[in-house]
Specification:
By secondary structure, the protein is of the alpha/beta class. The protein has ten helices and ten strands. It has helices spanning 5-26, 29-47, 88-96, 125-129, 131-144, 159-170, 192-195, 216-226, 242-247, 250-256, and strands at residues 48-54, 60-66, 73-77, 100-104, 152-157, 176-180, 185-186, 189-190, 203-209, 231-235. Helix 1 (5-26) runs antiparallel to helix 2 (29-47).
Length: 261
């Protein structure tokens, strides 16, 4: 018998009140620390939900939704060969800033492989470009949950950054894209035209490291030249995409200064 989400939440709350809290009074310092770590993990579990979406061309997509009581949402677009889990640290930080988040596996990645029949490594450029339909499915889901475009931001890495920039050019009510290691052309997903099509109310934050083994360092400078209203953040020795925030968590704090409040 499968337990509903509401029953699971009630059981967790009951466990916290009846067992964990009294135990803290009697446990030693080391015991209390261990219990508090468990308590923190359980609180995080209460905010997380696994969701499935279907794109307009029939692709089943799997995501992790972390919710808050606020009306702000961050959609997280991973790089290749990563999955939705690459956003875990940033998603937890977003909760601290009052943002719900949805990190999803793009088609051909992680759990979005149509029962193993899709593999991004075999995709043609045309198939890579169809990942825009994945993002459109997520935006549709967000609207169904009551999120307006003006309250939705996009954070992407590598090809996910390119998809985020293109989405802003197509949805002028989306206020912000944070682009970690974007390129001018990743597998046919181009940004040079999109970066010049932003509305005055939109902002793109471009982030790259000088040791990136892909062309994002030169690309962000060209994108910034094409649209000087973009924000350019340069780093040294941090690599590509979400590897930058993994190596230097302080970068998360810097890019979050641009979050709409």
């Amino acid at each position: 018998m499968r337990m509903s989400a509401s029953w699971r939440r009630l059981m967790i709350k009951g466990f916290e009140r009846l067992i964990l809290v009294p135990f803290l009074y009697y446990a030693g310092i080391s015991g209390r620390k261990k219990v508090l770590e468990i308590f923190d993990r359980m609180k995080k579990m209460r905010t997380m939900h696994r969701i499935t979406l279907i794109s307009s061309d029939g692709m089943k997509l799997v995501g992790t939704y972390r919710h808050t009581n606020q009306d702000r949402l961050a959609i997280l677009l991973h790089m290749m060969p990563a999955t939705k889990e690459s956003w875990d640290a940033i998603a937890e930080k977003l909760l601290e800033h009052g943002y719900a988040s949805l990190a999803f596996d793009q088609r051909g990645h992680g759990e979005s492989t149509m029962d193993g029949t899709l593999d991004y490594k075999t995709f043609t450029p045309e198939q890579q470009q169809q990942k825009r339909l994945d993002l459109e499915a997520v935006l549709t889901w967000a609207h169904e949950q009551g999120f307006d475009d003006a309250c939705i931001i996009l954070i992407g890495a590598s090809i996910g950054a390119n998809l985020a920039i293109r989405a802003l050019a197509e949805h002028h009510d989306l206020p912000l894209a944070i682009a970690l290691s974007p390129g001018l052309d990743y597998r046919g997903v181009k940004t040079d035209d999109a970066i010049q099509s932003l509305a005055p109310n939109q902002k793109v934050v471009l982030v790259a490291s000088d040791d990136d083994d892909r062309p994002s360092w030169d690309s962000v400078h060209e994108l910034h030249r094409l649209n000087p209203s973009t924000v350019l953040i340069e780093r040294h020795g941090l690599g590509h995409g979400t590897n930058m925030t993994d190596k230097d968590p302080s970068l998360i704090d810097e890019i979050f200064t641009y979050l709409p409040t």
